[in-house]
Amino acid sequence: MNMTFNFNNPTNLIFGRGKLNELAAQIKEKRVAGTLGKRALLLISNGKSTKVNGSFDRVVEQLKEADVEVSVCSKIMENPLKSVVMEAAAFAREKECDFIMALGGGAVLDSAIAVSAMATNPGDLWDYVNGGTGKGKPLVNAGLPIVTIATSSGTGSEVNCWGVISNPETNEKIGFGYPELVPVLAIVDPELMVTVPPKYTAYQGFDALFHNTEVMISNGVNIFSEAIALSAIESIAKYLPRAVKDGNDLEAREQVAYGSTVAGIAMQLTSTTAQHSMEHAMSAYHHNLPHGAGLIMISKAFAEFFIEKHACDEQFIKMARVMGIPTADKPEDFVTALMQLQKDCGVDDLKMSDYGFTSDESMTLAVNARETMGGLFLANPCEMTDAECSGIFDKSYR
Question: Global pTM?
C-alpha cells in the first residue's frame, strides 16, 4: 500500500440536513475575514429544479440576509458549453460580481470553476484548457471566490477545483481546473435533493460510485484515498437503490450525498482513470447523453478489461466485499455486484444506440478520449492501447 499522499483542501465543507440555513452566517463570517464581498453571481441551471425544490428562494433570502447584491445567470445546461461559460463570465464582469454562488447539480458546480476563471482572465476558456485543442496557458489572474451548494449527488465538484466543459465546435469535452479555483465554502444539504427524479438520481449516483471505484483501481491509490473511497462505495451501494425508489428517503439521500462528496475529496488524493476520459468522448459526440448513463454503459466492459489482465485483482475484491458480497474472493465478484446494483436501480438496460451511437464509432471515440484527456489513461492500473479502448466500446455497444 502506498503510504504517501498530499492533501490540501481549503474548502469549508458543511454537510448535513438543514445546513442551507447556515449560509448567511457563513458569508458574513467570510466577509469579515476578507474572503467574500457583497456582489454575487448566482449560477443556476436552465431547468426548473431549484425553483421546484425551493432552494433558489431560500438561497436568495439567505444572500439578502447577508447583505449580498444578487445577479442571476440561469443558462447552465447538462454537459455545459464553453459558450455559456464565456457568456456567464462576461455577465459577472458587467455586474461587477466579486464572488460566484453555484446552486445546482454537477453541471452548475462544474461551470462555476470555469466562470470563476474567465470572469477575471483575458481571452477564451480554451486558452487555459490542457488537452485536445486547448492552449494550456497558466491563469493570469486569480479567479473569483466560489461558494457551492449542491442539489444533487454526482460530481463531487462542490469541494474540488475541477469542472468538465464541452466545446461542440471541436467535439471536445475536457476537464478544466486549477488549484486556486477550489471553492471557499461548500454546503451539502441532502434535503435539497429529494426532488431529483429517480432516473437522474441513479445516473448521478453511479457517477459518484465510479469516481470512487476508479480511485480504487488507479495506480496512484494510497492508504488515505482507499479508505475514504471504500467508505463511499459502501454507502452508495447500500443506499442508492433506496434513493432511486423513494426520493424522500432522507437517510438514503444523506448516505449517497456523503459518497458523492467524499469522491470529490478522494479525487484530490488520487486521479480517476480512463473510464471518465472514455465517457467524455461519448458525450462530446452525443451531447444528449447524461454523463452517468454513459459511464454505466461502458462500466462492465471497462472493469472486465483489467480483470482479464489481473491488473488489480485485490482492489476489485475489496470493492465487491463492501458492495454486498462479504465473502468475495475473486475480482469477477465486483462485476457481479456492479450488475446487481445497476439492476436494483433500474439502469441495467441502457443502450448506446438509443442515444444515436453507431457500431462504427468505437475507434473515433477511443482516439478522442486519449487526445482530450489522455492524462487519465496514465492512471490506469495497466496500459490500454487505442485498439483495446475501442474494443471496450465495441463490447459495450448495443
Answer: 0.94
